[in-house]
Fold each of these.
Amino acid sequence: MQNKEMLTLVIFSGDLDKLLAAFIIATGAAASGMQVNMFFTFWGLKLLQRADAGTKGLNWMQKLFSLFVKPGSERRPISKLNMFGMGAAMMKKIMKKSKMPTLGEMILTAKSLNVKLTACSTSMNILGISRESLIPEVEHVAGVASFLADSQQSHTTLFI
Amino acid sequence: MQNKEMLTLVIFSGDLDKLLAAFIIATGAAASGMQVNMFFTFWGLKLLQRADAGTKGLNWMQKLFSLFVKPGSERRPISKLNMFGMGAAMMKKIMKKSKMPTLGEMILTAKSLNVKLTACSTSMNILGISRESLIPEVEHVAGVASFLADSQQSHTTLFI
Amino acid sequence: MQNKEMLTLVIFSGDLDKLLAAFIIATGAAASGMQVNMFFTFWGLKLLQRADAGTKGLNWMQKLFSLFVKPGSERRPISKLNMFGMGAAMMKKIMKKSKMPTLGEMILTAKSLNVKLTACSTSMNILGISRESLIPEVEHVAGVASFLADSQQSHTTLFI
């Protein structure tokens, strides 16, 4: 049965601007009483990786990917005008001026509002991301079946 | 209650090709009798800005953003192969040849079909977009709560 | 009426990584018994084009587009770090190592699970893609009305 109070987000992107939009929607919904599920896949997983995640155990191709796409909430590029990080740095400064929380703070707020953060096991396999390299806020690692079950109960599911 | 006749679109992208897809879906749905809500956020807001919107009152970071991402329906880049505007110009020529309406015309069509155009207040704050710089077709400025209320009533909500 | 067992995906992107995510969701859903509709539009259509599709009958602008965005499942770029195809080649190698199916194999799996593959007629017109240049797995060519009818019956619709 579909639940009028459940929202599910697939977070495919690892870009700062899209992640901000996702967390503004997620925390807004959770604050108003909805159960919110965020299912992180592909580049979105980089947000959930510890900033000090190493590359041990990766094959050279996975190493190369992790060299170019840095882990952690502090190092997300923006989808437009990133200009080697300058655009992202500027957006973060603007957010600070507007007294907006950082991505890292938004993750904590989401957790405190019981947003369910799930890391996609298939993508972890492809990108060589281990369970240990994820931040402790991630409680669930699951595949597409888990996402489908959530979306089936949700009034809205977005792919971001 | 979910309404079989309501469609909500979050327009995050400011790219010509994605905006075309969004307006084709929106006007198609509205023409067939659905109530359609378009919620413009981040780069999507640039579509709703007047082409002559100045940069008065912006801090230097917001000015820099508005320098690179031009306002108005005529100056949208495309998501692939933009090549400093050449790709976008070509796509517009192809559309003209195919006798398709321009983005500007699609906004007017959407309005005439009672599509609700809402500008996201949080993004306006971040990007330094004032109410006065928006085109008159935008009647609503609202935050995430308004979007969530719409999506809860919609049979389909898309993030574009 | 909305159907708890129907899923609809709009495939706007032609990028390898997004297409993989789309087909993992689509085949996962179809394998668990859902009716799945994939509606391919804009760059997503390039996946459904035969690799040997020529440029006969195209105007020069459409030719230029098809020169830069190659047709077929083997030549999809990735959305990040494509680096003239190097990134895409690496991702395909990683997938092979992880014993994941290729995009071409995923299309066949989707077909065998009765996923409905529809090519968007409006986009075909814009990009100059003829019915004959599509792979035989595509059975349907339709416009936005067909997509809207599907999404109205689906518990989840994603724009990818």
Amino acid sequence: MNSEPLILVVNDDGITAKGIRSLVEVAKKFGQVVVVAPDKAQSGMGHAVTINGIIRAQEQNIFGEGVQAYSCSGTPADCVKFGISQIIKKKPDLILSGVNHGNNSATNVLYSGTMSAALEGAMEGITSIGFSLLDYAADADFSASMHYAEIIVRNVLNDDKLPENFCLNVNIPKGSIEEIKGIRFGRQAEAFWDDWFEHRKDPGGKDYYWLTGTFHNHDKGEDTDEYALANMYVSAVPVQYDLTAYHTLKHLQQWPQ
Amino acid sequence: MNSEPLILVVNDDGITAKGIRSLVEVAKKFGQVVVVAPDKAQSGMGHAVTINGIIRAQEQNIFGEGVQAYSCSGTPADCVKFGISQIIKKKPDLILSGVNHGNNSATNVLYSGTMSAALEGAMEGITSIGFSLLDYAADADFSASMHYAEIIVRNVLNDDKLPENFCLNVNIPKGSIEEIKGIRFGRQAEAFWDDWFEHRKDPGGKDYYWLTGTFHNHDKGEDTDEYALANMYVSAVPVQYDLTAYHTLKHLQQWPQ
């Protein structure tokens, strides 16, 4: 790592969200910061990329002097691709995504624009960290998030044994620095959304639906992100983009063809 | 498995695509078929879900008698959630996604609406299979895809040892049944997009960009999906939604806090 790392900051709540401003403040302590973030909220976008439409981008002066920033019409994953290919024009040393307004633990990692941006970075061979605070409020208190983001970024930058496609999913419980007990490294819990749709009629009498649901943790393990968060620890789960279910491969190879 | 399995068919190319018609034909041989598919092309949508907007759905008579079908304004993952929660109102025995017009091998699995719909099914505890043909043409020849989809669906329905969250990513090379050599089960290759953006000016002189790129296989393994496809085999990769990078956990637990 060179002495002044180049850090790309992205998010999914949009470039004007409080969470990304907090993360930029942390990033500035460690190196040169470039921001490429969506021009509107892109929550729940998963790993969507814009392949059937165009991308626009606009330079923005939001984060003060020394921070080059662009709003981008694309998804969070698009922002990473666009930032590297069109703005920075080389690989940054680190990608920080977030701080997301809301939970990205357990299977939420798959729906999360924040974490998909981080995984996109990892796929491009760049160490990437996604941060999420368990508070959906626009004016959420990011003090503890900033405190722990600083600890985690310092550890990542000082660790020369990390694989180059290292990606970390960090979730911070809602609470003060004093209330949070530390960081626990663990695995993604077997916890899922139980979905339902709220059925409404529009003013013309036509049906429409809102996706909603409740989140259930079916996992009794004490080594999970859900357990850490429920016990007021910051949860950190290393994540990977290899989805192969290796444990079933041998069984499948016995199928008749 | 009961004698007449209930099969939910989804896709990401939209309900009028040729690929989904081919898959419905295969599904009809095995059980009762319900289709819930996007009302427009949703390629590259990854695991996006509609949380900041509404969903609409419309019954459609596209697949002939006996096949209940709905077009849905949502993403492929939305279609699975909506189909189970609002249309079928119970868990189907099987979800089939596709046949996609285009490749979903290697890291494409993360961008793929087809595979995200299948993974969504697996997260809901339903055996799910995504099928993709390596041909982007709207009028692609799906004969070989149908042949192999039938073999794979039969194996899945006859296999009582599969985990209930089993998910399979099937890619079919472009070619005739005679040209394709069989099915190879393997892992997701370390193969990635090298992105770039084509910069254009709109009629008003404003900048816009198209995401494009080339796909590179950096993986020398002969046990990968890329190797299978390059050698004219159907590739089948079992996939999972647990993204935890277990191999780095122990190392991270040594970080100072």
